[in-house]
Amino acid sequence: MASEADIRQVRLEKLHKLAATGQNPFPARVLRTHTCADIKQRFADLEKTATPLSIAGRIMAIRGQGAILFVVVTDGTDTLQCVFKKDTLDEARLAAFTELVDIGDFVSVTGTAFTTQRGEQSVLTTAWDIATKTLLPLPEKWHGITDPDERFRKRYLDLLMTPELRDLFVKKSLFWDTVRSFLKSRGFLEVETPTLELTTGGAEATPFKTHHNDFDLDVFLRISVGELWQKRLMAAGFPKTFEIGRVYRNEGSSPDHLQEFTNMEFYWAYADYRDGMQLVKELYQEIAQNVFSTTTFTTRGHTFNLADEWKEIDYVEEIRAQTGIDIATATEKEIEQKLESLSVAYAGVNRERLVDSLWKYCRKNITGPAFLVNHPTIIAPLAKKGERAGTTQMFQPIIAGSELGRGYSELNDPIDQHERFETQKQLLAGGDTEAMMADDVFVEMLEHGMPPTCGFGFGERLFAFLADKSIRELQLFPLMRPKK
């Protein structure tokens, strides 16, 4: 088998031969009157009228030799077969194609629509031109790129050779289009808020830090889609806002966690968490139907139907039912001992992290769809207090053993908010890098007054779960370590 270097050298020689015959191996423009999809959609009429047509695309396969060649071309809209025959194509041009063109090259093909004896819709070629001469080969058709890291490093080849993967990214675009259309149809205004912040808020995560040269100060990449900014818009008189954008979290990677990903957050004045729960249920059901044409899914070992009743699960009661621990009264030592007896790894020793680790053990046993409610105050520093002491008006959709979103009746009491920020300061000082930063300017805004508000956010993990893929697989170009 020829090495890649040998293949490149042969193709380089072909490139020079093309140039020597007056053909530009890299023209800025080639003849193209139709897409492959256009031709297939109108094939009967085009064939009947013998309409001259030209397509341009990448060659994915070449079969035959001598007097007849069958060339498969793809242009991103569809794939179409082009037939090269010596009785319809100049003999010298047929010979030049055979000698100088390879699988992977881009060509422009001119001809007419016709059906082969085997019934395949094709283009009977009368002329061709090179559109781009390639120097390196495509992966082997049946196996593609087998090394996982190489797949991500050469994602363009992975996408080219894997149609079902390309289809997933079309669905992912439809996923966000559906979210946007749903919210706009209900009166939400799409906004843009800063991605560089002096303090991060709206989530518990370790931020990326960078330096602003002009102001000579350190800033952070945001960890949420403008939660504290969108709340300022509520104070400014906007009744409903949302944002879809990138967020950044400087934490570990896993199939379902990345350092950079897309989230959505909405804020709704004069609504509470129960209004939010109803809206979110309708949104998730519309996503399912519009993007996947079903409400029933099997993923991560769970089968669920988003059209079913969404039960409410009490945070404290569920942990007690599954572990026997009452987190409202248990000591930190008792929680640690329970985690160890369950073989659950946990980091840090503050109460918030211990309770969260215990909940994460429990959630994997819940199929859903369900809403988790009555979270402890320490878990939700931006949510209003609940009806039961020590709880908050927070809700999370639970699907397939995971939390796929988070919402609150937003805290708008500046005195309470200041006290909760002080608690978060203590957690940060104690080494909890994921604790929330205090934002005194935000508290000042609350003192000017923010109406009762429901806020909710979710990320592209929802799409990954419904597609039953890892979130890393559903990044077009995931971050990779440089090759050594």
Brief summary:
With 484 residues, the chain is of the alpha+beta class. The protein is built from 15 helices and 19 strands.
Task: Give structural attributes.
484 residues, alpha+beta, OB fold (Dihydrolipoamide Acetyltransferase, E2P), BirA Bifunctional Protein, domain 2, nine-stranded mixed sheet, five-stranded mixed beta barrel, 15 helices, 35% helix
Task: Spell out the blueprint of helices and strands.
Blueprint: H1 4-20, H2 36-41, H3 43-49, E1 53-65, E2 68-74, E3 79-85, H4 91-100, E4 106-115, E5 121-132, H5 148-153, H6 155-161, H7 163-185, E6 189-190, E7 196-197, E8 209-212, E9 217-221, H8 227-235, E10 240-248, E11 260-269, H9 273-292, E12 296-299, E13 302-305, E14 311-314, H10 315-323, H11 332-341, H12 351-363, E15 370-373, E16 394-399, E17 402-403, E18 406-409, H13 414-429, H14 440-448, E19 453-459, H15 461-467
Parallel strand pairs: 3-5, 6-10, 14-15
Antiparallel strand pairs: 1-2, 1-4, 2-3, 4-5, 7-9, 8-9, 10-11, 11-19, 12-13, 15-16, 16-17, 16-18, 18-19
Helix pairs in contact: 7-9, 11-12, 13-14
